[in-house]
């Protein structure tokens, strides 16, 4: 373990310890909100892989979120399958759908791809109403909130908090390994210059479709978790605004940043509520001001802003101590 | 990766270590002090259904009026309302905030069918009064399974029963043809009609035709219904299809006694586009005074509402029925709080809401009253029939009570 990694790992551990302690400090309502944050964070990390790391725009990730949620809900409601099994199934199914959608998307670049995915976000709520036998139509499907297994002395909110936290940690660990390794470099190379990437022997078509699939899988898992936490799915839960919200989260948090997904999730969960507390009359105007303010102050998202501050802080300390060491650059891609 | 494994282990250890603590929950009189009662509410102030936001604003304005006049039994109403943008997950979050953080005494007029469905189980588990929800679905009247939830406006089944009662009484040789949208809304209406007809249903209904909301046209269904020999047409469609159905029946010369569901009773959205001539003679069921209808100009309840709007909600439209609706719902809630006296426990709020007898609300048609009981969680169940006379809906006949109370 190199010395430069030590503070990072200590920091991560401290965060995790705090996260595990929260259920015994906070009210159930707050836990529910934090569970939502973790769910959003998983979805945003998925979107971040696609948009931030691979440079493919998506305004349609709400659709994968909806598919994940409905897969989970239908399995629980129609076949009485335990919720735990529905989450990986939702992920795998979204992986396949995302991969298949990624194939035609290869022909589309930038804004055109954004529009194509946007159509997905528009279509899904209506398609859900069409298959009424399965989806319950506009009335949706009512589910039961899962209780803690194995007789654990946790109430449902505490249990769901730990479940979402565990899946978050798992998926972030997988995501970090994927993005920081050889595969990650290939994904970023395609974003930065796909001709050069191809010249280096990267199968850009395959990689782009795969990233689309993995991205959709992450978002699908998030959707399935949301079905468990909310205990209800309906087409109105997954309107176009959800896709836009996820994109806002990923940009505000920091594109092409893993920790940014968590910051972005906090932003989209709590800032609309604060905006509503500040002004009942025009909450979205307040939200807009927040959005512009954040983008102006931290053009690389919250994660980027924190990194800059960190570098500045360590550099000044180094200078004060009179050493001539060069600050270690963060070794992520941005 | 060694560090990762350590990390996982640590998480597990910590997780198990802190499991022992279980938060205790204390039950007392929630949301009430000597000077205040907290009432919670959600409404789509933003998003696709934000046109309904005005209902929440009217209710807030009415409670302000109550507070300005000294409150109820010395208590001011603290009306806490949040925006849920008509998205069920946001409704769950906001209602949990109201119940667990703001600690409201009761929820009132939460708006929307999917949004209320999302919190239905939760509020009943928490035993929070969930009163006079703003939706027309039938499921809110289910005191056996959901004793803490209560509807407000007549539901679709009730309306279906009203037509059935009229047919049984006045059209002895009825042969009924039904056109309905193939979803919960359409099926609720059909169920109400069939239940209302009772044993005669199988004989009287000669043909049922359904359509999907995605269908481009319903012409073939209308032709089938005409060919079935039906002399009564029960038209359960939303405005877009109602226009087509009225038009097509007129064009092919089919002249049944035509019952049009209240959902499509708008003059501007249905009758006018379908053609005044084709629409003449349609029958629908009404329970409220339409604010733009000149016949209520001198009605006391209507005038009070106009005076209220001018003073407390001047930016609200006097042509929007939603504002009359919200005003009347708020009056009913204030009535319940008053009836509670000094015992504002959740149990008593529910008990009083279940004990409303013959309460008059300004927006109800003359003679229609609010009535509830522990086994009846549908406050408004009476309706009156009205015939379109080419200009407006003209009331006729007596008041129909869907359940013959």
Structure explained in plain terms:
The complex is a heterodimer of chains A (334) and B (405). Chain A contains 14 helices and 2 strands. The model of chain A is unreliable at 322-334 (pLDDT under 50). Chain A has one domain (3-320). Chain A is mainly alpha-helical. Chain A has helices spanning 6-21, 28-53, 61-79, 83-105, 110-130, 132-135, 156-180, 182-192, 194-199, 204-230, 240-253, 258-278, 283-297, 301-320; strands at residues 141-142, 232-233. Chain A has a two-stranded antiparallel sheet with strand order 1-2. Chain B has 405 residues and is an alpha/beta fold. Chain B has 2 domains: 31-154 and 296-374, Response regulator (Rossmann fold); 157-286, Response regulator (Rossmann fold, 3-Layer(aba) Sandwich), CATH 3.40.50.2300. Chain B has a 4-stranded parallel beta sheet with strand order 2-1-3-4, sandwiched between helices. Chain B has a 4-stranded parallel beta sheet with strand order 6-5-7-8, with helices on both faces. Chains A and B meet through helix 1, helix 2, helix 5, helix 7 and strand 2 of A and helix 1, strand 2, helix 3 and helix 4 of B.
């Amino acid at each position: 373990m190199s010395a430069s990694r030590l503070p990072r790992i200590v920091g991560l551990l401290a965060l995790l310890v705090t996260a595990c302690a929260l259920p015994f400090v906070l009210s159930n309502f707050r836990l529910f909100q934090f569970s939502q944050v973790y769910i959003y964070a998983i979805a945003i990390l998925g979107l971040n892989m696609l948009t931030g790391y691979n440079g493919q725009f998506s305004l349609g990730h709400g659709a994968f979120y909806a598919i994940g949620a409905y897969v989970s809900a239908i399995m629980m409601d129609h076949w009485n399958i335990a919720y735990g099994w529905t989450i990986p199934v939702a992920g795998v199914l979204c992986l396949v759908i995302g991969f298949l959608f990624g194939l035609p998307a290869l022909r589309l670049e930038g804004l055109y791809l954004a529009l194509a995915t946007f159509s997905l976000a528009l279509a899904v709520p209506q398609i859900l109403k069409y298959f009424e036998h399965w989806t319950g139509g506009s009335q949706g499907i009512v589910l039961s909130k899962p209780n803690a297994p194995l007789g654990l002395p946790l109430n449902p909110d505490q249990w769901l908090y730990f479940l979402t936290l565990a899946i978050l940690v798992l998926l972030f660990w997988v995501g970090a390994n994927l993005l920081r390794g050889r595969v990650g470099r290939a994904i970023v190379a395609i974003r930065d210059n796909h001709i050069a990437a191809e010249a280096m022997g990267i199968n850009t078509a395959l990689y782009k479709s795969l990233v689309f699939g993995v991205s959709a899988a992450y978002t699908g898992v998030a959707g399935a978790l949301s079905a468990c936490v909310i205990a209800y799915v309906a087409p109105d839960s997954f309107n176009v605004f959800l896709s836009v919200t996820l994109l806002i989260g990923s940009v505000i948090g920091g594109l092409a940043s893993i920790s940014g997904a968590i910051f972005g999730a906090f932003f989209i969960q709590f800032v609309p509520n604060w905006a509503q507390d500040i002004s009942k009359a025009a909450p979205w105007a307040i939200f807009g001001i927040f959005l512009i303010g954040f983008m102006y102050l931290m053009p690389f998202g919250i994660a980027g802003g924190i990194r800059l501050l960190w570098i500045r802080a360590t550099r000044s300390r180094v200078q004060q101590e009179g050493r001539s060491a060069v600050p270690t650059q963060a070794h992520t891609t941005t | 990766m060694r560090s990762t494994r350590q990390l996982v282990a640590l998480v597990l250890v910590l997780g198990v270590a802190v499991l022992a603590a279980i938060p205790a929950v204390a039950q007392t009189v929630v949301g009430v002090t000597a000077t205040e009662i907290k009432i919670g509410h959600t409404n789509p102030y933003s998003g696709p259904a934000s046109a309904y936001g005005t209902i929440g604003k009217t209710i807030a304005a009415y409670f302000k009026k109550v507070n300005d006049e000294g409150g109820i039994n010395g208590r001011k109403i603290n009306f806490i309302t949040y925006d849920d943008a008509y998205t069920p997950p946001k409704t769950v979050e906001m209602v949990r905030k109201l119940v667990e953080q703001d600690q409201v005494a009761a929820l009132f007029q939460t708006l929307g069918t999917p949004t209320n469905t999302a919190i239905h189980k939760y509020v009943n588990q928490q035993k929070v009064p969930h009163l006079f929800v703003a939706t027309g679905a039938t499921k809110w009247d289910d005191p056996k399974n959901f004793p803490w939830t209560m509807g407000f406006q007549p539901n679709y089944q009730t309306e279906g029963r009203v037509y059935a009662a009229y047919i049984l009484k006045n059209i002895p040789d009825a042969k009924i043809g039904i056109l309905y949208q193939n979803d919960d809304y359409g099926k609720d209406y059909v169920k109400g009609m069939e239940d209302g007809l009772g044993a005669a249903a199988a004989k009287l209904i000669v043909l049922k035709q359904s359509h999907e909301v995605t269908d481009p046209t319903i012409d073939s269904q209308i032709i089938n219904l005409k060919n079935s020999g039906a002399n009564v047409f029960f038209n359960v469609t939303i405005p877009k299809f109602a226009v087509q159905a009225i038009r097509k029946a007129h064009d092919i010369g089919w002249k049944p006694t035509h019952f049009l569901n209240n959902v499509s009773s708008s003059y501007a959205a249905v009758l006018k586009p379908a053609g005044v001539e084709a629409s003449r003679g349609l029958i629908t069921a009404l329970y409220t005074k339409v604010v733009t209808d000149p016949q209520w100009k001198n009605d006391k309840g209507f005038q009070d509402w106009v005076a209220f709007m001018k003073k407390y909600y001047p930016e609200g439209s006097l042509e929007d029925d939603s504002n009359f609706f919200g005003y009347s719902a708020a009056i009913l809630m204030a009535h319940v709080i008053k009836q509670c006296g000094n015992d504002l426990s959740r149990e008593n709020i529910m008990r009083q809401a279940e004990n409303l007898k013959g309460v008059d609300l300004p927006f109800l048609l003359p003679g229609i009253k609010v009535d509830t009981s522990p086994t009846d969680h549908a406050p408004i169940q009476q309706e009156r029939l009205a015939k379109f006379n080419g200009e407006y809906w003209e009331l006729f006949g007596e008041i129909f009570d869907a359940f013959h109370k």
